[in-house]
Structures are given as C-alpha cells and as structure tokens.
Amino acid sequence: KLFRRSLMAALTVAALASTGAAFAQDFKPRLIRFGYGLNEQSNQGRAAKVFAEAVEKASGGKMKVRAIGAAALGPDTQMQQALIGGAQEMMVGSTATLVGITAEMALWDTPFLFNNTREADAVLDGPVGQKVLDKLQEKGLVGLVYWENGFRNLTNSKRPVGKLEDLNGIKLRVMQNNVFLESFKTLGANAVPLPFSELFSAMETNTVDGQENPYNTILSSKFYEVQKYLSVTNHVYSPWVLLVSKKWWDGLSAAEKKVLQDAARLSRDFERKDTREEAGRALADLKAKGMQINELSPAESARMRDKLTKVNASIATQVGMDLWRDTQAELAKLRGQ
Ligand code: TK8
Known about the structure:
Radius of gyration: 22 Å
Helix content: 40-55%
Shape: globular
CATH architecture of the largest domain: 3-Layer(aba) Sandwich
Strand order of the largest sheet: 2-1-3-10-4
Number of helices: 13
Structural class: alpha/beta
CATH class of the largest domain: Alpha Beta
Bound molecules: D-xylonic acid
CATH topology of the largest domain: D-Maltodextrin-Binding Protein, domain 2
Largest sheet: 5 strands, mixed
C-alpha cells in the first residue's frame, strides 16, 4: 500500500512537471510597462488589453501589465532603446522602425511580398519569421510574435492617385526606414520620414500632404479628418512585433517566460481576427466619414508593382541572400509553384 501511495505521488509529480504546471513561488511580483503607438480604441489598443489580461490571469495576478498607448512612452524607436537599456519591459510596434537595429527586419518591407493574409501568417509564423525574430537577441531584444498591422494604402489631401504620375510632387510621410524612403522616391513622391506620433499634426498643418497605412489605422487615428483621398494600393503588408527587453527577460523564471509566450500567442490570434474584421468594414466607414476612395486599375497596379521591384535588390543585400532565397522558396511552395 505504501509502495502504491509513493508511486502515485511520483506519478503526480511527473505529470505536473511534464505539463509545466506552475506554482505560486514561480512568480515574483512584476510590473510590465507595455508601450504602443496607436490609441486605446485601435486594433493595437484592443489587443494590448487582451495581452495584459491574459498575463495577469495566468500569473495569478503576480504579473501586472500596464499598457500605455498613443506613444506616451515615446515613438517606436525611443521605446526600442528603452527596452535595450532595460528601462522599459515590453512594447509592440512596427518591424519597419527596427531595421536600423536588425537589418533582417527589412524583409517585411518588400513591396507586394505577400498576396494575402494566408501567406503573411504562414511566413511570419514559420521558420523564416522565427529566424528574423531570433536576430533581435544579439541586439538586446526578444521578439515573441508578430501581430497584423496590415496591407497599406495611400491617403492624401491633394488628389486621387489613380496612376503613378499622380504621386509626383506629393509630400508623403513615410516610416523612418530606408526601404520605404527609397520605395516612395522611386514612385516619384517627395518622401519625408517622420515618427507616427507626429503624423496627424503634420497632415493637419499641411507639413505633409499624405501618408500610407492600413484602413484600420486611417480610421482609428481619425486621418479622415485631415485627408480627403484614399487610394487602394495594398503596396505592402506591415507586421507589428511584440518585443521584450532581453535584459529583463533574462531575469525571469521559466514559468514567467511561459506566461508571456502563451499570452503573446493568444493576443496574436485575437489581434489578427479583430483586425481583419475591422478592415472588412473600414472602407465603408471611411466613405461614410467623407473620404473619396479610388482603386487603381489592374494596369496601373502592375506598373506600380514593376517599378517597385527595383528596390528588391537592395533589400536582398540588406537581409542577406540566404534569407531572401528561403523566403522566395517558402512563398513559391505556398503558391503551389
Ligand atoms: C504605430 C506605427 C504604425 C505604422 C506607422 O506606432 O508608423 O505608420 O504603421 O502602426 O508603428
């Protein structure tokens, strides 16, 4: 009987260990300052809340996430430095603003890289996406998952862009990223890099004429108040990436790390679904808000695509030929080629 009881106890311990069950003592009280750039009512804000709640619940309230939006902790680049230095624990932001730190991130700035969200999910969540995330570690950052920012479209206050030439002379804000700068210069626009947090007022004061972002952001950041024209270009798919300070991460227990990883995946799945639902109705909402919307003809779309393939060579050099080829091979496979 004694033998049976100790066997049972041993089995229970083994079962708990194998399921990775966490005990209260695995969690220290932790305050996680989680910064992001959009406002609380945006898709980014909603998903930040989901992440915060999942972390608190799974850690029995020991790990508290203070989600701080609207770039109140600074624009993306400033938060990245705070994470690297250990002054801030977490953030979510554009991969595009990380290129100065990790050149491989430029892969996601490739114009027309993905044809649809199925391809984006498969590549970002697959080995190529992971390889790019892993590159962050040597720079003092841990990348957990990619969220969806989305396919980007052009807005401006001057005129509908129906063909390439319509972009001539338009002062267009781009993200602080050499690929975006080069892309829009190639298209003939007067491209001006600016942090997102300065964008609304730059448009309001006509310091810039236009910008490009997914429908969701054009809606949640109320760009329709200062932009008349929306031209459907879908010129690139932008991910967001959930980042942790490596300095801080290295001090966490295995159980604490697992809580963050699980919550990151849960928030990612929520965020993509929520973003796609919102994007599906956003165009109608933007029209109702008074925006004039035009689509590019297939011929003009093809011209834009052709012109932009010019930047591919410099992206391939920047991210490395191996990564570039792996990405193309994975896409070909996904497309059944
Ligand atoms: C929000 C930005 C935004 C991005 C941009 O902080 O800068 O235009 O698309 O989502 O990261």
